[in-house]
């Protein structure tokens, strides 16, 4: 299955800003849907696939239409229109697009059972490299969002070489950089020419969205200004899901960027006892906000006036809880705290110091 009101700081300022949170990349974030058990459509027969050109050159945000012809048939008694979609996979080159689709080819001659379908492949500059026809699929939806369990019928067809120049690049900065739990936040998106580092000078349609709309359907559309900049406010709930920017082509994403927002490290812990005989193990139970499972937590003991030493360690469970073990080494008040090191998108955090008295 495949898927397919801003205050500008000026281009130089934004170019610097977008690098603060995420590196600007061009690899599509939304180029595949979660794996399903699928199989080719047994009703589809493919005899040949022909591309109208073997090589094209594409610049910037433009696309080049390449004629595509399929000879084959679809075994059905229905009279509704049958559309065919031709998939091409990358076989060489360095462009960020990993596949292309010539979508919604229509019956041009013959019958549905034995006919000729024609349409176009709209080639973007991000396809820079070589692509080869790999399969054909029937239908009007090709991203799996209709629940279809059908995959393309394999077909080793012709290749096309794409020379892409001035490829679009996407940069994103998140405001604030670390998003508090339960708070809305903003994504500032910049689209620019990877060769010059400058905007294209035109307004660009982009999808800035989240969750399943990053991998299926069309997402929320926004229009950049002529400097290639646009801003979206995300709801608080989006902070716990995949976020993304998608540059949509006719049938597939030509470029994209996905991310998860940074979260604060909020950790709390309470000892099961506030006093215990020297050498006795005292469990200290706690939680980390957001439940970053498998991230480490470290129990630290104050040694002298300023030095904290690690004495016990655990990992956060899926519930967000953890247990570390204190063991008072001497008679008197022993001061502890729990340290949560930076882990994935979660920032470092500390509990307030607490005391266990040894006796």
Any descriptors?
single chain, 359 residues, mainly beta, nine-stranded mixed beta sheet, six-stranded mixed beta sheet, 1 helix, 27 strands, elongated, disordered N terminus
Q: Describe it for me?
A:
By secondary structure, the protein is mostly beta strands. It has 1 helix and 27 strands. It has one helix spanning 11-21, and strands at 39-40, 44-51, 55-59, 63-74, 84-92, 99-110, 115-124, 129-138, 150-151, 153-154, 159-165, 168-175, 185-193, 205-210, 221-223, 229-234, 243-248, 253-259, 267-271, 275-276, 282-288, 296-303, 307-315, 321-326, 332-340, 349-350, 354-358. Strands 2, 3, 4, 5, 6, 7, 8, 10 and 11 form a 9-stranded mixed beta sheet that branches. β17 and β18 (253-259) form a beta hairpin. It is elongated and about 95 Å long.
Q: Which secondary structure elements does this structure contain, and how are they paired or packed?
A:
Layout: H1 11-21, E1 39-40, E2 44-51, E3 55-59, E4 63-74, E5 84-92, E6 99-110, E7 115-124, E8 129-138, E9 150-151, E10 153-154, E11 159-165, E12 168-175, E13 185-193, E14 205-210, E15 221-223, E16 229-234, E17 243-248, E18 253-259, E19 267-271, E20 275-276, E21 282-288, E22 296-303, E23 307-315, E24 321-326, E25 332-340, E26 349-350, E27 354-358
Parallel strand pairs: 1-9, 3-11, 20-27
Antiparallel strand pairs: 2-4, 4-7, 5-6, 5-8, 6-7, 8-10, 8-11, 12-13, 13-16, 14-15, 14-17, 17-18, 19-21, 21-24, 22-23, 22-25, 25-26, 25-27
Summarize the structure.
The chain is 3% helix and 49% strand. The protein is mainly beta.
């Amino acid at each position: 299955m495949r898927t397919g009101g801003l205050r500008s700081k000026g281009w130089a300022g934004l170019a610097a800003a977008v690098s603060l949170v995420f590196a600007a990349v061009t690899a599509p974030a939304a180029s595949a849907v979660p794996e399903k058990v699928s199989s080719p459509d047994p009703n589809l027969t493919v005899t040949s696939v022909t591309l109208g050109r073997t090589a094209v050159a594409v610049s910037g945000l433009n696309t080049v239409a390449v004629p595509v012809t399929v000879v084959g048939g679809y075994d059905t008694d229905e009279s509704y229109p049958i559309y065919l979609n031709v998939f091409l996979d990358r076989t060489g080159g360095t462009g960020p697009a990993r596949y292309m689709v010539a979508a919604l080819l229509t019956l041009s001659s013959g019958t549905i059972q034995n006919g000729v379908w024609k349409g176009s492949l709209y080639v973007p500059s991000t396809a820079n490299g070589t692509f080869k026809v790999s399969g054909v699929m029937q239908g009007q939806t090709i991203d799996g969002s209709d629940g279809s369990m059908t995959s393309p019928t394999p077909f080793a067809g012709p290749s096309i070489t794409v020379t892409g120049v001035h490829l679009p690049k996407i940069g994103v900065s998140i405001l604030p950089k670390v998003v508090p739990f339960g708070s809305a936040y903003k994504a500032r998106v910049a689209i620019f020419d990877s060769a010059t580092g400058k905007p294209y000078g035109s307004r660009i349609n982009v999808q800035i969205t989240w969750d399943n709309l990053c991998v299926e359907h069309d997402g929320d559309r926004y229009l950049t200004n002529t400097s290639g900049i646009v801003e979206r406010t995300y709801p608080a709930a989006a902070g716990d899901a995949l976020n993304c920017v998608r540059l949509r082509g006719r049938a597939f994403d030509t470029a994209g960027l996905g991310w998860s927002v940074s979260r604060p490290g909020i950790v709390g812990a309470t000892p099961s006892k506030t006093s215990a005989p020297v050498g006795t193990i005292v469990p200290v139970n706690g939680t980390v906000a957001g439940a970053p499972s498998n991230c480490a937590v470290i129990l630290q003991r104050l040694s002298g006036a300023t030095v904290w030493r690690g004495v016990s360690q655990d990992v956060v469970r899926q519930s967000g809880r953890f247990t570390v073990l204190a063991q008072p080494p001497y008679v008197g008040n022993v001061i502890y705290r729990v340290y949560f090191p930076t882990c994935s998108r979660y920032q470092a955090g500390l509990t307030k110091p607490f005391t266990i008295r040894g006796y």
